[in-house]
Amino acid sequence: MKIAVDFDGTIVEHNYPEIGREMLFAFDTLRALQDQKHQLILWTFRSGKSLEQAVEYCRKNGIEFYAVNKSYPEEDFDESASSRKIQADVFIDDKNIGGFPGWGEIWRMLNPSEDLNYREQMRKLQERKPCFLKRFKRIFM
């Protein structure tokens, strides 16, 4: 499945043009989706240097996108065009109706039968990052 993911307000908190703090479980969820062989597309308003910074930030956190602001890597996108409408099966964005539900809920929407698997993955994460344990329990338990 092709999944288009916004950056500001979705992967990181809004702080444009700077890069905000990582949203809780953003990169863990994105890596798990890539492990399931989904193609992730970074779909963002950013361009130029701020886009390069966002891509590099994601790369440092273990996410290499299938494409950036394009439907597929080879697409010839005209930067002067007024819209970046791309082809994807799912769009994850904080501007959805109802706002951004959080990465745990995103996982449950995309993997309804694997909710327990996600909880187990997050428990393993807690063993490596105990500082998230309190927030994790409040969100998922």
Brief characterization of the structure:
The protein has helices spanning about 25-35, 50-60, 105-110, 115-130, 135-140, and strands spanning about 1-5, 40, 65-70, 90.
Key features of this structure:
alpha/beta, 141 residues, globular, Rossmann fold, four-stranded parallel sheet
Describe the structure.
With 141 residues, the protein is of the alpha/beta class. It has helices spanning 26-35, 48-60, 103-110, 115-128, 133-140, and strands spanning 2-5, 39-42, 67-68, 90-92. Strands 3-2-1-4 form a four-stranded parallel sheet, with helices on one face. Helix 1 links the parallel strand 1 (2-5) and strand 2 (39-42).
Q: What is the 3D shape? A: globular
Low-confidence stretches: none
What's the CATH topology name? Rossmann fold
Q: Strand-residue fraction?
A: 5-15%
Task: Please tally the helical runs, counting DSSP H or I stretches of 4 or more residues.
Answer: 5
Largest sheet: 4 strands, parallel
CATH architecture: 3-Layer(aba) Sandwich
**Cα-to-Cα separation, first versus last residue:** 29 Å
Oligomer: single chain
Class derived from helix and strand content: alpha/beta
Task: Tell how many strands the DSSP assignment holds.
Answer: 4
- Cα radius of gyration in angstroms: 15 Å
User: CATH H-level name... which superfamily?
Assistant: HAD superfamily/HAD-like
Helix content estimate? 25-40%
Q: What's the number of domains?
A: 1
User: Would you list the SSEs in sequence order as H and E?
Assistant: EHEHEEHHH
Strand order of the largest sheet: 3-2-1-4
Give the integer mean of the pLDDT values: 83
CATH class: Alpha Beta
